[in-house]
Amino acid sequence: MISTRDKDKIKILRGIIEGIIIAGLLVILIRAFLDFGKYEPYDKNDNTIVTGEDNGFLGISYLAVDRSGSETMIGTKRLQEQLEALYRNGYVTITQDDIINYYNNGMALPKKAMFLMFEDGRTDTSIFAGKIMEKYNYIGTMLSYGDRLKNRDKKFLKGNDLISLKKSTFWELGTNGYRLSYINVFDRYSNYLGELSSLEYYDVKPYLDRDYNQYLMDYIRDGNFIPKESYLQMTNRIKKDYQLMEDTYTEEIGEVPKLYALMHANTGSFANNEKVSSVNETCIKDLFTMNFNREGYSLNNRKNDIYDLTRMQPQSYWYPNHLLMRIKDDAKTDIDFVEGDLKRKKDWDVIRGAAEFRQSVIALTSESESNGLLRLKDSMDYQNFKLSVILKGNKLGTQSIIMRADQELKRYLSVKLQNNHIYIDENGKRLFELDLDEFDGVKKQSIDENKQEALRTEYEVYKKNSSFGKVTNMDRQSKVIEDRAKTIEEGADEYVSPIQIQEAGSRKLTVFLKNDKISLSIDGREAVKDLALTGKSAGFVYLESAWGEYGYSQRNIADDVYDGVFENLNITNIDDSSEVLYDNQLHGLEKGKFYISNTWSSILNWFIKTL
Question: What's the pTM value of the predicted model, to 2 decimals?
Fold first, then answer.
């Protein structure tokens, strides 16, 4: 039995241990939240940096940063990986004044110059991105919306916050405009929704395609696309927005930023309509020194105008080689790709693309508008085996396991996961196809049912948001909602939901290959058993990643690079499971370290989010 004295000792010891843990967490948090360094500009007299060779500069812009990341917000770990990859390739950041002097005064830029931006003016971006930029001595521009500088939402930086950022020396200031809102919005069924705030837009976004304009891009129009405002009214509305921008920034931070990023970009001018474009152009050039007018591509050079600059927006799911591949294609420059664990890499020949080996993951990045291809060394005699792997690349794209192949890939057997379908091909002939939504038993909707669901959601948003009430046909739509939609079983056409570019995927495939038969299980469930093959010759194992189609998305206009993600790849003799042919799984101490690291990261994420 433990005495009272011993219990007191245990309490004291436990208190000391808890104190040490809390103190350690506080140190980590303080280091994560505060900047202690000072940005040092690149040496303009160093001829190894400023060589006199004019390569222009890259425009790289992140939407937002979060510690753990999300579909739209890049996590700190992935941001650090991407910036480190740029740093190791010799890229240095330039300032707004550098860009001004480059275009207006002919000043030379570093051979590898990069202009870094962060959009939306979020508090978490300033916290998490700042420490990473400090590590690599990078300076970035924080873009914000004017109407968010005064609101009470703590997610967004206020005027005093922006002033403090600028004083830190690692930040400059810019603006995305006064507001983020939408006009002339139609859903995918051509129902007119009118004018939406950003919150209203996100509520109905699942039912929209790309039939809308940003607030400054066009006349405000009715459901027949006829302008609801005269030329003078349109001009006054747009000028008022710029005036609000000028007044707000002057009041909150003492000046209007030099840099503007017009939302949305890629119109070919300064709006979708010629007359609106002319008004925007006048206002932009009166108020700002430069404008990022386009997105999707990263390279700017003297062929650009300082008011027609372009930026690339790296996504939260990009591996660092994805970013580097896009830069290689845009800038037509040599790139040193991230290879990762060289001990794991030595088992493979990189035929095309770029491959990173990290723990149990092989991230295979395709070339632009092409594919990535790896060949497993010493696998030319692989004939009968069991292969298991988890494919974690995004749904929209192609990840293939190619088996029994010759070096020219004229003879092969492949299991392909493409756009949420499974295909088995042999020497160019399709043997098997499976829709994974059907395999999962996903309930299918008719077009009528999806249309009614869209109307119901839109009507609910209309009822709770006054600005949505400008749409005159909403009361009429409420009556349509009461009607019963026709189902697929009743003969209605099926609604096929488009796969979004950012949709994450994760499928465990297990292939059983013996003589002239192949079987396949997906996520532990049998998909096909003893499918007949025409051949049974041994051959190499390849991994392939491919985009498969030209990518288009409003968030990332032209992304033609794809990351195939192959996790826990394991190949064993099908007749003797103890004979391991290849194994990229984690084991022993390495597995333990990985588990501890992930657990610790989860604890920190919880601690930070619950502060």
Answer: 0.89
Hunting for tokens 């009507």 — which residue is that? 459
Least Cα distance to 60 among 242, 323, 254 occurs for 323
The distance of Cα 12 from the centroid of its chain, to the nearest Å, equals: 48
Q: Which two tokens stand for residue 406?
A: 């010759």
Q: Name the one residue in this structure whose structure tokens are 């890259």.
A: 58
The 8-class DSSP code of residue 469 comes to G
Distance CA 90, CA 67 (A): 26
Distance CA 596, CA 589 (A): 10
Strands (E), 8-80: 57-62, 65-66, 74-75
Contact indicator for 584, 360 with CB cutoff of 8 Å: yes
- Which of these ranges, 84-88, 96-100, 191-195, has the smallest mean pLDDT? 191-195
Residue 340: phi and psi, rounded to 5, are: 80, -135
| Residues in CB range of 470: below 8 A, 6 or more apart | 194, 195
- CATH homologous superfamily of domain 34-180+215-320? Glycoside hydrolase/deacetylase (3.20.20.370)
Q: Name the residue ranges covered by the structural domains of the chain.
A: 34-180+215-320, 339-440+502-609
Quote the tokens at residue 110.
């570093």
Q: In this predicted model, what pLDDT tens digit does every residue of 256-272 receive, in sequence order?
A: 999 999 987 787 799 99
In sequence order, what are the beta bridge partners of 567?
A: 361, 390
* DSSP 8-state symbol, 53: -
Architecture of domain 339-440+502-609: Sandwich (2.60)
Could you give the CA distance from residue 217 to residue 211 in angstroms, rounded to a whole number?
12
Widest CA span of the chain, in angstroms? 89
The arithmetic mean of pLDDT across residues 217-222, rounded, is 96
208 near 185, Cβ under 8 Å?
Answer: yes
Per-residue pLDDT of 139-151, as tens digits, reads: 999 999 999 998 8
Helix (H, G, I), strand (E, B) or coil at 504: coil
The dihedral built from the CA positions of residue 151, 157, 161 and 166, taken in this order, carries a sign that is negative
Phi, psi of 373, deg, nearest 5 = -145, 125
